Amino acid sequence: xxxxxxxxxxxxILLNNSRLSYRQxxxxxxxxxxxxxxxxxxxxxxxxxxxxxxxxxxxKLGYEFKALIQLxxxxxKLFEVQKKIAKDPHVxxxxxxxxxxxxxLVTRFKTRNSLDKFLKHxxxxxxxxxxxxxxxxxxxKEKQDKIE
Length: 148
Hints:
- With 148 residues, this protein is α+β, with helices and mostly antiparallel strands.
- The protein has two domains: 5-45, Winged helix-like DNA-binding domain superfamily/Winged helix DNA-binding domain (Arc Repressor Mutant, subunit A, Orthogonal Bundle), CATH 1.10.10.10; 65-136, 2-Layer Sandwich (Alpha-Beta Plaits), CATH 3.30.70.920.
- It has five helices and four strands.
- Strand 2 (91-96) and strand 3 form a beta hairpin.
């Protein structure tokens, strides 16, 4: 699918507020609601728009500890370990990375003790050779504001 200027404008509007109706988006862009609906449907069908979500303040919900956890995983077991760890509700994201480690987790915890328990638990997994944890002190940006 070739992305048009109108597609980009629609995506940028949805990045800012995914609750807007087709009619509201159409009014902003000065096109018809049917045009917006067709473009959004095409973007969804082509998996460019994958889901609509809510931006939650996890800090205000009591999740005071956010950490990046790097993992070194035995050869050939990367996906197996990642799938297992990804099921944990503390894990926000799992990425394959390059460098000295094989994967990085983005995690959230309400207490230091729950972070400690999680680390000790994943270190017992077969094939997890080493972990390295970094606490996130401040979040400067955590949202995609716009695409070009």
